[in-house]
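Checked the freezer inventory, then went back to the computational side. Two predictions to log before the end of the day. The first one is the construct we discussed on Monday; recording sequence and tokens without edits.
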Amino acid sequence: YTMQGTEKNLADMANGALRDLKNSGYEIVQVKNTLWDDTAPYRGINCKLKSKEGAQIELQFHTAKSLEVNHRLYETARKDSTSAARRKQLNAEMAANAKSIPTPDNVQSVGKF
């Protein structure tokens, strides 16, 4: 699943959603937040969650710009059918594009509650 916010509200939105899910019984297994790091080739927030019944889900948080810049390239790069050479090319392209993504306000706080 993907939730999209603005540079101004993304951190509050993400923390609110994660708190609500945790209060509903989901375990927050991992929060990988590279949206604050303008040197990261993929800039986004990817969260792994597990329900009380054991179902695992991934929840991503993006701004319109981070979704536009990264997502299509990332989806291609992660496919098993993508060659190592093409994956390297895609990662370089993502890294170059990542610098154009504004860093959302207070984004380093996501998942730290």
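The second is the one RB wanted added to the comparison set:
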Amino acid sequence: MTLELTIDHIGAGGDGVANEGGQTYYVPFTAPGDRITATPTEARGKGQAATLDDILSPGPDRISPACRHFGTCGGCALQHLSPEFTADWKRQKIRESLSMAGISDAEVLPTLTSPPGSRRRVELIAAKRKKGVMIGFHLRRSHQIFDVGDCPLLAPGLLALVKPLRAMLPSVLPRNSTAKVMATVTSNGPDLVITADTDLDLEKREILAAFTAENELSRLSWQQGATTPPEVVSARLPADISLAGVDVTLPPGGFLQASADGERTLASFATEALTGAGHIVDLFAGVGSFTFPLAGAARVHAVEGDAELASGLQAAANRAIRPITTETRDLFHRPLLAEELNGYDGLLFDPPRAGAKAQAEEIAKSTLPTVVAISCNPVTFARDVALLIDGGYSLGPVRPVDQFLWSPHIEMAAVLRRQ
């Protein structure tokens, strides 16, 4: 059954939303105002998913996609929308989440967007079949793999690895197997972590070592299954990144902000908000993306649940003689208590997507004068901020930062001050 639909708006997941005959339809790759034909597929929530068949007349915010693979490759969802519309739509997502949490008067600033070609961290999927290896991204809502060619999203150094990987992986992967390839830009060349359920013999290790040298990687690690730690197979140079002028070595597969541009924007926001604070606690510190910029004018105590990340952060701080101390602590199960927090005059927290509910409850009980909240999830961000407001903090302007170009995701930062 083919329907004629008019797209009303873009939903939270990036699909166009249309209402026809009392039924809601979710249609990917559509823009507000598009008049389309579409074929309904499976039920989705209280509505119906549909596939786009044809665009009868385009809406005012539709543009030509930047990539020839858009619509087939599942890596991007919003390339067909104008940058201005996308920036405002992401800003509105934050407003809506705050409103749902009871915060209706928040000032949400214009979105700052990272440029194309700036994504410095990517996970590719590889699959060995009879005719060779396919490598790329999953097709939209599918386990099938799109064999990627071009990608305007990725940093050029990462995109340049796709063809060499396609040629090398058949020598190390068994037939009908799959692997994940996590690639990260570092100061000394790309860092790769390959995850595959297969053993490495001497011949395969030599192939991987040669690949590291030929493609000027900083390091190549192999992870046999998602639950085992990665093993460094070949290291040409340290897998370092520069944070506020300090070289920090990434552990294999360690988390890093999606773009250097976005990281600088968030760090600048945080350092300005915490100007004057002499002793700062940085929670969910990771590799120190915000610890090192903050340590330019303050003592910083960095708390991180991953012992390897915390150890690497401390080692880098010691080499650079920065006023930084570290602590390994699971903040989900053992948040810093209000009495501990009262010893600081500034705090930053940047939790995973699940947010920091337990920690926010303790911050709300503390006497901390200034808190910077950073998040990649508007829903948990709004929940945590609401807890702080209920505890006596006032919310300043919220800054959206789009490091996730052409996707529905958005990062945000805000400063809260105790009244």
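For RB: Residues 393 and 418 are 4 Å apart (CA to CA). The chain has a mean pLDDT of 95. Let me know if you want it refolded.
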